Amino acid sequence: MKTRIGLLYGGKSAEHKVSMQTALAVTKALDFGKFEIYPIYITEDGEWMKGPQLQAPPENIKALEIGNGSNLPSPSFAPALFKSGDAESDQPLDVIFPLLHGPNGEDGTVQGLLELLNLPYVGNGVLASAAGMDKIVMKNIFAQAGLPQVDYVFALRSEWEKDSERAYKLVEEKIGYPCFVKPANLGSSVGINKAANKRELEAAFKDAFQFDRKIIIEQGVTAREIEIGVLGNEEPECSVVGEIVPKKDFYDYKAKYEDGDTAMIIPAEITEQQYEEIKEMAVKAFKSLDCSGLVRADFFLTKDGQLLINEVNTMPGFTPFSMFPLLWKHTGVDYPELIEKLVNLAIERHTEKQKIKYTF
Known about the structure:
The chain is α+β, with helices and mostly antiparallel strands. It has three domains: about 5-120, Rossmann fold; about 150-220, ATP-grasp fold, A domain (Dna Ligase, domain 1), CATH 3.30.1490.20; about 220-350, ATP-grasp fold, B domain (D-amino Acid Aminotransferase, Chain A, domain 1), CATH 3.30.470. It has eleven helices and 13 strands. The strands form three sheets. It has a five-stranded antiparallel sheet with strand order 11-10-9-12-13. The chain has a four-stranded mixed sheet with strand order 3-2-1-4. The chain has a four-stranded antiparallel sheet with strand order 5-8-6-7.
């Protein structure tokens, strides 16, 4: 029998377009001889649209925008959404593959829904997704685990609106310039700015607060940007490492998704000792957040050889040209095989969870 997969993509998030690119790439890579594939599209307004089983890979992103100019109905939000057809008697899908980036998808909200429905799903669970999405919580956990990282402070929009000067003063006293200002709960470099003085800091605060009620301000560091892929559940494995070499000051959204103004070096030129240290830190970060399935761990490597963990991404960019799949390709796992491994890991984790006893 074919495995029935529900692809969940789109989302009410500033990273909606990134998710659509990911969904198109995954549908083109899946083996239609092994899988039955059912699209579940979340519009930018948060409406859930279920489509019929795909008979072939879609030609373009437009074809994945279910309900856009078509007669397909928008189903009521119910467990039936995750079944192979519209009738209540239809079988639940075997596994859900959330291809969602950012809030309302990568942050534990959708994972919580799937847990309540007791459905296997690819990727990290509720806790890891939520903690990995919130950069402040994530860094606090890393600090507790003893992982070295750059200095940081955070600010709330409500406090900034009451006394902006106090917020700026905290940054100048604790962090200094240059620094990076980021929304706490967003990825793909959306809303991130580098500030070299107070005027730039003020502009960076205004931009970041458009996307979140919390922002994090990190100390700027001159370092190489090193990334590694982690794959697994209880016994995670690591890929080779790669290096991001942006032509701009940092790896922003346009460099990632629009103008390609960056270079990825795989494998990165590092020593064997550094590689072992990166692997050890990546697995430690993976386990400290109770991750499962996949993670891309990002590091800074300073000129004096110090390694600092920057963050982990619990749903990294996942097109064939994104860093995470490329890291695994260079490790010997090509894109279609990587997808199948993630599906198997999801089923493995779900099976393990069924051993938990909820009555006594």
